[in-house]
């Protein structure tokens, strides 16, 4: 009985956070929280205001925690004419280091942009992988989209967020692709969720690998409605939930799967606050959540 109570208490300590921003993206970092990964509450508080980049915006915030407990944040700083992403770190998600720009596409002189960076900590190599989408005009075949909208995925590696490997191609699936996130499903078992950005698709699919750097194979069919983007995945019990921004419908959608072969639309089972935009989901302790609530002047639970 005691062991059961201890296990139950421990389980209750883990809660979900969803990084967020609101248009027009000059406000800064927001958080949603949830106890079950289905029903979300907005803290209605800015935890970090963007200060880097010419446009001084924060889009697509992605957070990953290192083994030392430090949280690392990256984000999109501009729609175009920028080869950089934003970066800051924090021990508590409240007090942040000075922001800095990381010029991830410095070795690509004709690169148009650097969009939607996503962080993944590779526990095998002890380093972080940053994946983002960029267009390098006339490098790859394209469909109907404009040459400046023909994206591929690139990556850099870092252990300390001070030194970074030169950008390399992460994925060329044969079509324009953006908004990619890596999750570890099991030992030597990784899933990549992404947006096919080609016309007429513009929706979500996944691929698989035994290495977080690929190669990625066995691409699934597109399993969301057209005009969906910004996917992020989290585990809830035995299920994987894939959230995405159904931007034409102006709402959030979600799919549930256990095997990444069949996907069930659960949009009617979720609640996501109006105005929430492209972020990523990660877990924190109940103590961390209550500290965030206190900083946002919201009652603890």
Q: How would you describe this protein?
A:
The chain is 7% helix and 40% strand. A hairpin with a 6-residue loop joins strand 13 and strand 14 (203-209). The chain has a four-stranded antiparallel β-sheet. A four-stranded antiparallel β-sheet has the order 4-5-6-7, with no helix packed on it. The longest helix is centred in the first third of the chain and has 12 residues, at 2-13. The protein contains two helices and 19 strands. It has a single domain (2-295), classed as Glycosyl hydrolase domain, family 43 (Tachylectin-2, Chain A), CATH 2.115.10. With 301 residues, the protein is mainly β.
Labels describing this entry:
301 residues, mainly beta, Tachylectin-2, Chain A, four-stranded antiparallel β-sheet, 40% strand
In short:
The protein has 301 residues and is mostly beta strands.
The name of the CATH superfamily reads Glycosyl hydrolase domain, family 43
Order of helices and strands: HEEEEEEEEEEEEEEEEEEEH
Number of strands: 19
Provide the helix percentage: under 10%
- Strand % is 35-45%
User: Span from first to last CA?
Assistant: 25 Å
Figure out the total of helices: 2
Q: What is the typical, i.e. mean, pLDDT?
A: 94
CATH class: Mainly Beta
Overall morphology: globular
Query: In angstroms, what is the radius of gyration?
Result: 18 Å
Q: Largest sheet, described in full?
A: 4 strands, antiparallel
What is the domain tally?
A: 1
Tell me the strand order in the biggest sheet: 3-2-1-19
Mind telling me which CATH architecture this is?
A: 5 Propeller
């Amino acid at each position: 009985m005691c062991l059961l109570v201890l296990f139950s208490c421990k389980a209750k300590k883990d809660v979900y956070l969803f990084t967020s921003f609101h248009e027009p993206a000059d406000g800064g970092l927001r958080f949603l929280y949830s106890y079950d990964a289905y029903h979300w509450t907005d803290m209605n508080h800015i935890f970090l205001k963007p200060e880097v980049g010419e446009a001084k915006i924060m889009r697509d915030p992605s957070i990953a925690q290192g083994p030392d407990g430090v949280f690392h944040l990256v984000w999109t700083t501009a729609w175009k004419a920028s080869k950089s992403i934003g970066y800051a770190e924090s021990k508590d998600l409240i007090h942040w280091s000075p922001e800095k720009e990381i010029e991830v596409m410095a070795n690509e002189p004709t690169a148009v942009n650097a969009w939607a960076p996503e962080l993944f900590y590779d526990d095998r190599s002890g380093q972080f992988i940053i994946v983002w989408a960029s267009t390098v005009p006339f490098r790859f075949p394209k469909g109907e989209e404009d040459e400046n909208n023909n994206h591929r995925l690139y990556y850099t590696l870092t252990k300390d967020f001070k030194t970074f490997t030169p950008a390399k191609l992460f994925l060329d699936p044969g079509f324009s692709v953006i908004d990619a996130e890596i999750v570890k499903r099991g030992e030597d078992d990784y899933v990549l969720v992404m947006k096919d950005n080609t016309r007429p698709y513009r929706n979500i699919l996944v691929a698989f690998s035994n290495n977080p750097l690929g190669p990625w194979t066995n691409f699934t069919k597109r399993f969301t409605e057209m005009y969906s983007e910004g996917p992020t995945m989290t585990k809830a019990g035995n299920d994987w939930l894939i959230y995405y921004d159904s931007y034409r419908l102006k709402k959030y959608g979600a799919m549930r799967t256990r095997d990444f072969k069949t996907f069930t639309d659960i949009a009617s089972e979720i609640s996501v606050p109006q105005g929430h935009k492209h972020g990523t989901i990660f877990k924190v302790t109940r103590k961390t959540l209550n500290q965030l609530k206190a900083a946002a002047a919201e009652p603890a639970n």
